[in-house]
Fold these 2 entries.
Entry 1:
Amino acid sequence: MRSTTIGLTVAALLAAAVPAAAQVDPLEIIDRVDRLLRGDSSRGVATMEVVTEHWERQMTMEIWSLGTDYSLVRLRAPQREAGTATLKAEADIWNYLPKVDRTIKVPASMMGGAWMGSHFTNDDLVKESRLIEDYDIELAFDGENPDGVAVWEFRLTPKPDAAVVWGSIEYRIRQSDDMPLWTGFYDEDGELVRTMEHGEFTEFGGRTVPGVMDVYPADKPDERTTIRYEELEFDVDLEPAFFSLRSLQRRR
Amino acid sequence: MTGPWWRIGWRNLGRNRKRTALTALGLAVGYIAVVFMVGWAEGISAELIENATSLVSGQIEIHDEEYRPERSLYDTIGGRDGTDVETLLRDITADEAVVAAAPRAYAGGLVSSGEATSAGSLMGVDPEREVALTRFLDPLVEGRLPVPGAYELVVGEEMARQLEVAVGDELVVVASAADGSMANDLYTIAGIYSTGLVEFDAATAVMPITDLQALVVLDPGRIHEIAVATADPAAAGATAGRLAAALGAEERAIAIAPWAELNPVLAEYISLADSLYWIFIVVIFAIASFGIANTMLMATFERRREFAVMLALGSSPGSIVGSVLYEAMAIGLVSLALGAAVTGPLMIWFYTAPPSLGWLYGNVTLQGALLTPTLRVGINVPAWTWATVGLILTALIAAFYPAVRAARVPPADTLSGL
């Protein structure tokens, strides 16, 4: 009887303490943002604009994803490259080249190479949604941006055994609606390698998500890659079989 | 070299012919060793340079000054506008020391066959000009050179092995094009080359330069490199300087680099080998000098009474020293004659028709250069001259102490048997 009372008291004390401590649980927030942006599955149409010192180009692509393991991107424009597709299944990436009607698996040594000429690497596609698995996450800043918006800034450092390319990542999230605003990617020496900015928060399929994402390489300030969603729907009916080599080769 | 002391010295060689022969042989073997080691080391250096500069790269390479070390696709000779390749090649080959020149273009990409894909470097060459300049495409291990416009390429033996492909098979080539697109096309393997440099052979696919330019969307006037072969690799630096002046390298923003600049490790190795010759010479003759000193010491001790008589008869100590030194010099000359008689024909043989040592070692790769071990020798007149001087000096220095001792023999005591 007595022990039960004590137990209840302790439980009540704990219950009172927990909400305060859990207010900012970095893991929980990152996970929530992650789920919000991805959904269980999605389908969308986006344009990608790549600006480099030497050329500029714009592509339109259709994108499907299922969980964290599968995604498929197929170019619709420019006409000359329409049908070119990238399949990500678990840790592997294949490219389908309609001109020669061949599928090529990207070798491990090229995972750091540019994806479709953009400032994204093949590795970004593989590692995109495993932040909470690969990184230790701590809250680095809880306050207002210079423009008065309340944000959390998280600092992500790789777990000792994680096979990742970044030395650390800084991830800034708007407190009011969990929208990611800014991400900085640093190398092992702590040098900024690139930044990613999210904006034009738009409602797609009943969720508000960033409609535009810009990537800026730190060593080439005049270059950028911009991805802008035209359409996006979540929780669409997709099977893992959809993300097969056969479906990769299907021409549209 | 006349006079009585020289004659006495010379004749003394005949007093104990076996000993003289052994001493002379000792010096001669030292001499032969130096000449041979210097010759062989020089041969290895020459082969290293030749291999490193005629297998794939030239003795001189011309790039846009921004091209190295990043090797960006966009840094073509003459910048974005490119250059008049034919005129440039004509201007380069106008130099008397230039044997051949060939244009090249490069791109990075993927080479794939079926399941297997490897990251590769694509090299565009002018097949006809390339075979006049470098050896890696001539002869091919298998097949023939690619024909421009026929979607053909040649790959390294190691790449063919990794991709499990043979002549006649199709390869997909994917590359980042200059317009940002993901260039890709199908090519047939026309031939397989082997440089023996495994990394190069595993990563490089070679196609006609016009085909590569078409693939990665570069104008025909945009090339990354002109490789130049010169008659004498040792003079590549001077030739590069002359070309820079003739072509106006600075105004055109092009960099003209001789092999020593392109492969500084090799250049350093060569100069290190050069300084090693001195160590050979010093060590070998130092060892020989103790042999001579010992012999001369014994020879002069034996002749104590003779020296005493000479001194008693009024010879100056200086002339005693002279006669011993002359004797040593005579031994030196005999050894030199012996050494030259042995090394001369051998050097000529090894230089003109080096016997192969392949049965002993197989092929060796050193500093990015392929070595086929042969007993090839190179010519190094200064080192050999120093070996000759060293031999005579060794004989004289080694005999100096015995000579001084001989001149200090006390005549009366010695003659009285004390």
Note: Chain B touches chain A at residues 74, 110, 112, 115, 117-119, 172, 174, 176, 178-182, 184-186 (CB under 8 Å).
Entry 2:
Amino acid sequence: MNAQAPALQDPRLNRPEPFASPLGDGGFFQRDRSIHPPAHAPGYKSSVLRSPRQALLSLENSVSEITGPVFGHNDLGPLDNDLIRNYAKDGDPVGERIIVHGRVLDETGRGVPNTLVEFWQANAGGRYRHKKDTYLAPIDPNFGGCGRALTDDTGYYYFRTVKPGPYPWRNYVNSWRPAHIHFSVFGSGFAQRLITQMYFEGDPLIPVCPILTTIPDKDALDRLVAPLDLNASTPFDSLAYRFDIVLRGQRSTYFENRTAGN
Amino acid sequence: MPQPLNYLKETASQTAGPYVHIGLIPAMAGFDIFEKNFSNVLVTPNTKGERITLEGRVLDGTGTPLRDVLLEIWQANAAGRYNHPADRSTGALEEEFRGWGRAGSDFDSGLVIFETIKPGAITDKAGRKCAPHVNVWIVARGINIGLNTRLYFSDEEAANAADPVLNLIEQPARRSTLIAKRSERAGKVVYSFTINLQGPEETVFFDV
């Protein structure tokens, strides 16, 4: 080697980088798995053969995890958040008209802006528009059963639909799903990706549902139950339910220069 | 009492169920509803990089392919740059290449197919080169919380051998569960993969 620059006496004293905020690296808070259903939950029989048995390998968040797909209004159509109209052929779908609204937040309490929320559900009779669903309840010709929305700058989303019905499924001979709406949420990084289900306040099937009761934490289960929200109901038109969704917190703050998620 | 921390708790995951297609890929459920749909094709004619097909199956504990599984992939472009503001690397960004796609498995064969490009190597926060890889997220009936894994490429032996994530896997034999195998079929480059949910060949899944 040629002549070298003189070695630093103690490189620890010559760090070129100022000490940065501990909340500034854009990584996500470690997932608290104790509030999620375990992969192997024998009461939900389908999980038995579909659950990994090895320990998950914990990864520090790298750029592959703190980044994720970005969506915009160009990806959506004008009726995408209106399930009463987005598949209507010759009238409105049958069922209780409802509005579902809420905010997508992260664990710091900040709204997650401009994130894609997708939702799907059975019709008012508990039948899905899906080629593999053979439940005897009828298809509603005016109901598709899916929609999507982008959250606004504060993380708020809303859509209109009819309340889904409960339906039987093959777990035990007499297993019925409580009425529910499936949600898919992205967040700002791929490590925040989440699919969940929203339930309705007061549904007597909630405490006996083999899927819902895979959740080991009572409070976590309760947070999937949307309360009736009369303040957002439209008189003589639709009741409303409120459903806030919390994604993993992100170690970035508004005090930083622009970082992921802000 | 100390001050309360007041963090919120993450919303609990629930299975995507057998009818996940209705919301995420309605054409597979059997109907047409949205003007614009997401798909398993990540490339446009303008996308830079080597065209590849990712093709594989997800197997349950008996070795049977899941026929109701949904996969999403998230990847960098050919220059190793993710299309997201948190990627501060210097590779050229391609606005048209989102780097994300989703696919449902075939209802008969269980085959999952993506049409994409081979991503470039990534530079991590510590400045280390990471082997080219595709991030994978798996949901289905019976999967209570989405599973995260990665696909690496069989023709990147040197890069794979130096990759910091592959080297976190204690048992060298398990590293091979993440390597998609390259072949050529009718002039097209195909990378084949198998994701085993259980068993002696269980795929490495990550807690990201």
Note: Chain B touches chain A through 78 residues (CB under 8 Å).
